[in-house]
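S.,

Sequence below, as promised.
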Amino acid sequence: MGRQVAAANCAAYGAAVTLALAVARRVWLRFPLHPLGYCLAMTGLCGSWAPILVTWIIKTILVKLGGARAYRRTAPAFLGLAIGQYFFARIGIGCLAAAFPDLLKKMPLVQFD
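The prediction came back faster than expected:
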């Protein structure tokens, strides 16, 4: 019973911090911390920092050069890129590993940890 209470307390704390960060971004226009960054850091997706950094750099350059209109026009492309990467890296590789267990032992995988 104690573990369930501790897990609920941690979830409540994480929700409170995320909500506080979201409110801070609404109140202060140039608040540097984003709630999504906090969530990614707490869920163990720290190994995905390189694609997130590259996407952020491209977005920053795109907004500086083309403004908000260019950002809105290219947002679906970046969403498709993220969904495609998730599908291939998580689901596709998982299905290959289930079907051919020896295949991944021979395949070099690059990880950004």
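Residues 49-99 form the longest helix (51 residues).

Coffee later?
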